[in-house]
Design a protein that fits this description.
By secondary structure, the chain is α/β, with parallel strands linked by helices. The chain has helices at residues 40-46, 95-98, 139-142, 145-158, 174-185, 203-209, 222-229, 245-254, 276-282, 294-305, 324-333; strands spanning 2-6, 14-18, 28-37, 56-57, 61-69, 81-84, 122-126, 130-132, 166-170, 190-195, 213-216, 235-240, 255-263, 285-288, 315-320, 338-342. The mean pLDDT is 96.
Length: 346
């Protein structure tokens, strides 16, 4: 079968290759991928700015159909429509795994990063990580369940946005727009979304259409605008999704005293500057959110099924696997919010 493979370490080194079709082992299922979306981390891996273990088939955001079940699998059968958590390789024995946090186990090797992923017609996943796609949710929409779960983990579980709170999201990319929707589903009074001029054509208008308050850097001072919206107090919660060092440094300036800042953007750098004393003297709760838990997926699928989070409006590019460069370039340039690959077609 054709697969999109990161062949080795270094810039680029991504190509379509013929690879053997995988077979499910005990406790595993073979999934025929119906749709797979391009994540920012896929682009980071292309540029050698994200952990990965080559050679590896890329892709971890997907939806598909169970094609075959391995020995011992009883809960799923061929024909089931599924998505899957990404915490493959977790040891299941350490403190983190045993407290429901296998997503951050040191042994974790996610699909598309440490084991073959979804940018191919088939992939194998442990049955214990699967979730059924709710009736009425398309494969294209369900392919973004993974980033939706990441947004749920950050906004609902880590930052714990409460009804009536005022929220600022830094970065109107796919994750930022999903965080906007999750915050609104949590009952936020309003959600402002801050983006650069590059976001003004597509992403900030999308934030407005999804119920957010767009703030364009360069046209407005975000600190002054948030102060205006909050009577000078600042936001209850600031969620940083872009990974931009400038956004990381901006976040504490937007939060109110005793507010919360949640960082989940990947910077691709070993160090970035942070306004320590601003955060200190405000008494901020600064936290980091990584990946997602089982509970994040349960809530994410519920929100998707109820239409309270919509992924369809984010899909600007839909192409076959053979046109993967077009999808990657659209995501990296900001021309597309989200790009979708159809791995069955080359």
């Amino acid at each position: 079968m054709w697969a999109l493979v990161k062949t080795g370490r270094g810039e680029g080194l991504v190509e379509l290759q013929q690879v053997p079709e995988p077979r499910p082992g005990p406790g595993e299922v073979l999934i025929e991928v119906q749709a797979a979306s391009v994540c920012g981390s896929d682009v980071h891996i292309y540029h050698d700015r994200h952990p990965y273990w080559p050679p590896v088939v890329l892709g971890h955001e997907f939806a598909g159909v169970v094609a075959e079940v391995g020995p011992g699998v009883e809960d799923y059968q061929p024909g089931d429509r599924v998505v899957s958590e990404t915490s493959t390789g977790a040891c299941g024995k350490c403190f983190l795994c045993r407290t429901g946090n296998r997503q951050i186990c040191p042994d974790k090797r996610a699909p598309g990063i440490g084991r073959n992923g979804a940018f191919a017609r088939y992939l194998v996943m442990p049955a214990e990580l699967l979730h059924r796609i709710p009736e009425g949710l398309s494969f294209e929409e369900a392919a973004a369940t993974e980033p939706t779960a990441v947004a749920v983990h950050a906004v609902a579980e880590r930052a714990a946005v409460r009804p009536g709170e005022r929220v600022v999201v830094l970065g109107p990319g796919p994750l930022g727009l999903l965080c906007l929707q999750v915050a609104r589903a949590c009952g936020a009074a309003w959600v402002a979304v801050v983006g650069t001029a590059r976001s003004a054509q597509r992403r900030l208008p999308a934030a407005k259409n999804l119920g957010g308050i767009p703030i364009e850097l360069g046209r407005e001072d975000p600190v002054a605008r948030v102060a205006e919206l909050t009577g000078g107090h600042g936001a209850d919660v600031v969620v940083e999704t872009s990974g931009s060092p400038a956004a990381v440094a901006l976040a504490p300036h937007l939060a109110r005293r005793l507010g919360r800042v949640c960082e989940l953007g990947v910077t691709g750098r070993s160090e970035v500057s942070f306004p320590w004393d601003v955060a200190l003297f405000k008494g901020l709760d600064v936290q980091f959110s990584f990946s997602s838990r089982h509970s994040s997926w349960v809530l994410a699928l519920r929100l998707l099924a109820e239409g309270r989070v919509r992924t369809g409006p984010l899909l600007d590019v839909r192409v076959t696997l053979g046109r993967w460069r077009e999808a990657f370039e659209a995501v990296e340039s900001g021309q597309a919010i989200k790009a979708l690959l159809y791995p069955q077609e080359v």
